[in-house]
Amino acid sequence: MISNLMKINIETKYKITFMKRIILPLVCLFFLTSYTFSQDELGTLIQKVGKDYTQKYLEPLTTGLGTNLNSGFIGGYNASDYHKIPIWPHFYAGVKFCGVVMQDADKMFDLNFESNLNYGGVPVPVVWTVKNAPTIFGSTTPAIATGRTPYGDTTITLIGGLEDTKFVPLFIPQIGIGTILGTDVVFRTLPGINYGNYGTFKLFGAALRHNIGAYAKMPFDIAVQGGYQSFGIKDKYDNKFIDASSMFVNIQFSKTIAIVNLYAAAQYENYSVDVNYKYGNTNISYNQKGDNNFRGILGATLSLVLVKVNVDLNYGSKFAFTAGLGVGL
Question: I need a surface site. Which of 106, 138, 143, 319 has the fewest CB within 10 A?
Answer without folding.
Answer: 319
